[in-house]
Every structure is written in C-alpha cells, then in structure tokens.
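Practice problem 4.
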C-alpha cells in the first residue's frame, strides 16, 4: 500500500502519524481498504521507510512473516515480468515450453543477482540504489557476453565462476 491509500476515513499517512516512536508496529483491524475489509500493519523499516501491509489474516507477526516470504517471490516475478525479462511477452503457449522458459529465466535471475550485488551504483535521493541488483547484473552480463575475447582475463568466465559451489555458499 502507499501512504496516500485510504483506510476508512483516514489515509495510511494519518495512521503512520499515530505510530509511537520505538514501537514495533501498529495493527489496524477491520478497516476498509479500497472497499474491502482488511487488517493493516503499519511500521517503519530500519532505514526509516514506511512499510504498510494490508492482509485478511490476523496477528501482526503473522502478517509480517508472510510478507517477508511473499516479498522474495514478488521480486522474482517483477524481474521475470515488467522490470526485466518480459516473460508476459512470450508467444509460447505450450505448458512444457513455458515451464522450461520459466526455469531458465529463474536461473538467469539468480545469475543476475549474483553478478549485480558487487556492482557499483549511485543512490537516489531517498538512499536506495538507482537500479536494482537484477538490472545491474543483467547489464554486466550483456557487456561481458558482447565483448570480444582477447588473451587477457575473460569477464564472462569470471561471471560464470559465480555459479561454482564455493562462491554461492556463505
């Protein structure tokens, strides 16, 4: 949800103003959000950004735990669709073909993340990166694949090395 999202008579921003400094979060139960009855969790991230989650489940901890898991999947879907690989634009309709494409794109997303994490990126005014880790990784991979191979270090081989087990375990 956004700060200007209506929750009953107030906006989410109005509810955020009621949040006590140092409190874990505020649970607003049984409010109407865009015409639907919801429970809403309002809190601030460690960086000070507002986090507003609407759900039809119960306790604050349950809503936040579910959101943590769902957010990881949402980041993958975003990369696969509009902000990356444009999966929805494929003309494929056969289930097996789409399934293989989805697997390949998921592996490519992981590779882009591994490549993009160490990439240097300027921050926007709000302090977050100007480009996502996936975008940075994809750009680096495209540059590496597009380069002519000479006798010096081959950037693509260094990026392939990221998939080695010794590089993926912490």
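Answer key:
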């Amino acid at each position: 949800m956004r700060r200007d999202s209506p929750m009953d008579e107030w906006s989410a921003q109005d509810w955020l103003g009621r949040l006590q400094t140092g409190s874990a979060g505020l649970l607003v139960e049984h409010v109407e959000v865009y015409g639907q009855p919801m429970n809403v969790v309002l809190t601030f991230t460690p960086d000070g950004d507002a986090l507003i989650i609407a759900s039809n489940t119960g306790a604050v901890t349950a809503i936040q735990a579910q959101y943590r898991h769902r957010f990881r999947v949402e980041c993958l879907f975003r990369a696969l669709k509009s902000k990356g690989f444009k999966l929805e634009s494929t003309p494929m309709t056969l289930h097996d073909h789409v399934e293989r494409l989805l697997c390949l794109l998921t592996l490519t997303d992981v590779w882009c993340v591994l490549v993009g994490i160490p990439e240097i990126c300027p921050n926007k005014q709000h302090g977050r990166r100007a480009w996502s880790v996936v975008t940075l990784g994809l750009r680096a991979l495209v540059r590496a694949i597009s380069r002519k191979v000479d006798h010096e270090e081959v950037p693509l081989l260094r990026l392939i090395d990221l998939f080695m087990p010794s590089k993926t375990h912490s």
